[in-house]
Amino acid sequence: QKEVEQDPGPLSVPEGAIVSLNCTYSNSAFQYFMWYRQYSRKGPELLMYTYSSGNKEDGRFTAQVDKSSKYISLFIRDSQPSDSATYLCATPNRDDKIIFGKGTRLHILP
Amino acid sequence: DGGITQSPKYLFRKEGQNVTLSCEQNLNHDAMYWYRQDPGQGLRLIYYSQIVNDFQKGDIAEGYSVSREKKESFPLTVTSAQKNPTAFYLCASNGQATKNIQYFGAGTRLSVL
Fold it and tell me: Which of B41, B45, B104 sits opposite A43 (nearest CB)?
C-alpha cells in the first residue's frame, strides 16, 4: 500500500460549487498534513498546513483530518475559475521526508 | 523578496550531453531538495541535502549528480547516463523551524532534442 494515495482526477465542477478533494494515508503515526496547489508549469505552493485531527479554515479553504479513518480532505467553497489547478496532499514520514500524493487535477467551469 | 530561484525555465539536452539545472535560495534554509515530476507520477525525490557539503540520494538518484558547496545553492546535473530525462524538475527547501513545510521554485522543464 502506498503511503499516501490521491485520486488523480480530473475533477470538473461548475463555478460556485463546493469542491471536496481527498487523500488517504497508510501510517497512523503521521501527524502533519499539507495541501499544496500547483498551477500548470509552476512549482507547488503551500495552501494549508494542519496538525493532528480536526479542521482548519482559511478563507474559502478548509482542511480536515480524520485520523481514525486516515483520511484528509480539502474543501473549497464558492469555487472560482482561478482555483483550477492540481492539488497535492503531503505528509512527512518517520524519516522526515515529505511524501506527496500524485495530485488531483481540478477544473472549475465558468 | 525571499524565495527559490530555478534556472533556466526551459532546457534542451542533446544525446550524450550533461546539463546542469540551477537552484538558488535566499531563505537561509539548511535543507534543499530536488524532485522530478512526470505526468501521473507525482513528485519523486532525486537528491537532498540537509547541510553544506553533504547530500543523500533520494528514490531515483541514478543518472543524476548534485553538489552543495554553498548554503544558498544546490545545482543538479542530469548526466548522459539518465536515459529518460524529459520531465519537470523542482527544487525545494525548508528551514529547521518549519522542517515539515517545503517551499518550491518555479521549476525547470527539461526536454531531449
Answer: B104
Q: Report helix, strand or coil for B14.
A: coil
pLDDT per residue over B13-58, tens digit each?
988 899 999 999 999 999 999 999 998 788 999 999 999 999 999 9
Nine-digit cell string for A24: 488517504
Is-contact A86 A35, C-beta < 8 A? no
Positive or negative: CA dihedral B38, B44, B50, B56: negative
Strands B42-51 and B10-13, bridge-based pairing? unpaired
β-pairing, A85-92 vs B10-13, is unpaired
Say yes or no for a CB contact (<8 Å) between B40 and A8: yes
Q: Name which of A49, A97, A102 is nearest B41 (Cβ-Cβ).
A: A102
Sequence-separated (6 or more) residues with CB below 8 Å from residue A96: B99, B100
- Whether B43 sits inside 8 A of A100 (CB atoms) is yes
pLDDT in 10s for each residue of chain A, 110 residues: 678 999 888 999 999 999 999 999 998 888 899 999 999 999 999 999 998 778 999 999 999 999 889 999 999 999 999 999 999 999 988 777 899 999 999 999 99
A30's CB contacts (< 8 A; 6+ apart) are A70, A91, A92, A93
Q: Are the Cβ atoms of A43 and B106 closer than 8 angstroms?
A: yes
Residues A3 and B43: their CA atoms lie apart, in Å, by 13
